[in-house]
Amino acid sequence: MHIPDGYLGPITYIAMFIIMIPIWLYAGYRVRKDLRSKQIPLLALSAAFTFVIMMFNVPIPGGSTGHAVGGAIIGIIMGPWAAVVSISVALIIQALVFGDGGITAIGANCFNMAVVIPFVGYYLYKIISGNSDIKSARRIVAAVIAGYISLSVAAGCAGFEFGIQPYIYPAVNGQYPYMPYDLSVTLPAMLGEHMLFFSILEAIITGLVFIYFQRNEPGLLEEKKLSQKMPGKISA
Fold first, then answer.
1. For 10-233, which CATH class?
2. What confidence tens digit (pLDDT) does each residue in 213-223 have?
3. CA-based end-to-end distance of the chain
4. Spatial distance between the Cα atoms of 31 and 173, rounded to a whole number of angstroms
5. Per-residue model confidence as pLDDT tens digits over 114-130
6. What are phi and psi of 36, to 5 degrees?
7. CB atoms within 10 A of CB 208
8. Looking at the whole model, is its pTM more than 0.85?
């Protein structure tokens, strides 16, 4: 799902940076404010976990790659704001050091994978699991569904960002300056391959990691994570 340089035009990638900057700032504030000291090693471990998972990527026709992210399970265990920090760190290192994902596309990649996945995954998990016992099978099912849907939604976001480029930047002398395929191609390509394979892999990883914590560290699932207030609702 890493978008490389040259596929998104300046209007798109600058807009994504503008969107991400306040999200990064607020996520950093929330982590400093709410994360307990004993959770800091877990935050670092989650960044390493998603970094390793995302390195195993497969090219997708159209200019991106497909892979699991682990964002849903990080959001469920650490809270979505902490997930924004850990996944963003992994994505930025991958782009700057390993060339995996474009530098100009850092904002878009972080939005798709560090924001969409953990937030969609977290809230789906909360809705589906409800008030069930922490060790119930319902919790596992909720985590698996959250993993599958969250990655699929993120893939759709990437497909949308690709697909609007021909409309923003029409062909000049028969050549498109950025992504040449519109939404009729990019959305099916991104959604199809993720929903049929990568999202299933994400669901399996999410379920297995959740089962591990459910059996060995249930306290991490029971404890109240970072408060889920939105930026405009900070208490005085």
1. mainly alpha
2. 999 888 778 75
3. 39
4. 50
5. 999 999 999 999 999 99
6. -80, 155
7. 14
8. yes
